[in-house]
Amino acid sequence: MLQSSENSFNLRAGTPAPNPNPYNPVKTVTAPVDQATIGRTLVIKGEISGSEALYIDGRIEGKITMPDSRVTIGRNGTVDASIQARELVVMGKVNGNIECSDRVDIRAEGAVNGDISTVRISVEDGAALKGGIQVRSEGKSNPPQAQKPAEAPKAMAATASA
């Protein structure tokens, strides 16, 4: 199905002939990764919530609520906030309580000062961690405060029988 050279170039208009192929694919432009980034010079005071991944290389004060997402604290990131996320990676500094429905990963250069409640936790050599850790089974998503009253009567019963 070759076309003659007369059809491929319109001699009268001096322009190429229109494409005989009627199919033109729709071009979609999407971000390669659905991730928001807070740069190293940004300071945010308040509440952050959302449903996409979050990378923090700046300073956050307040509360971070991303229950279905991954939050990454970069090497330059400093967070003075409570964090609720599906997954948390710490390479910077975190001061505040952490509640994750999947996992917490504290890298060698990371530091956490606060209580952690999660299903899985990984702490690399060289990481700093000061606070309590509660590793719960996958089915439960109760924060540590909800479970403490139930534990108190057991402790008293154990001391009374001893």
Keywords:
single chain, 162 residues, mainly beta, 12-stranded parallel beta sheet, two-stranded antiparallel ribbon, 2 helices, 14 strands, 14% helix, 46% strand, disordered C terminus
List the helices and strands and how they pair.
Blueprint: H1 5-8, E1 9-10, E2 15-16, E3 35-38, E4 43-49, E5 53-56, E6 59-73, E7 78-90, E8 93-95, E9 98-106, E10 111-113, E11 116-118, E12 120-123, E13 128-130, E14 133-135, H2 144-161
Structural class: mainly beta
Give the strand tally. Answer: 14
Q: Summarize model confidence as the mean pLDDT.
A: 80
Q: What percent strand?
A: over 45%
Low-pLDDT runs: 143-162
| Helix percent band | 10-25%
Sequence of secondary-structure elements? HEEEEEEEEEEEEEEH
How much is the radius of gyration in Å?
A: 27 Å
Task: Please give the alpha-carbon distance between the first and last residues.
Answer: 96 Å
Largest sheet: 12 strands, parallel
Helix segment tally? 2
Spatial shape: elongated
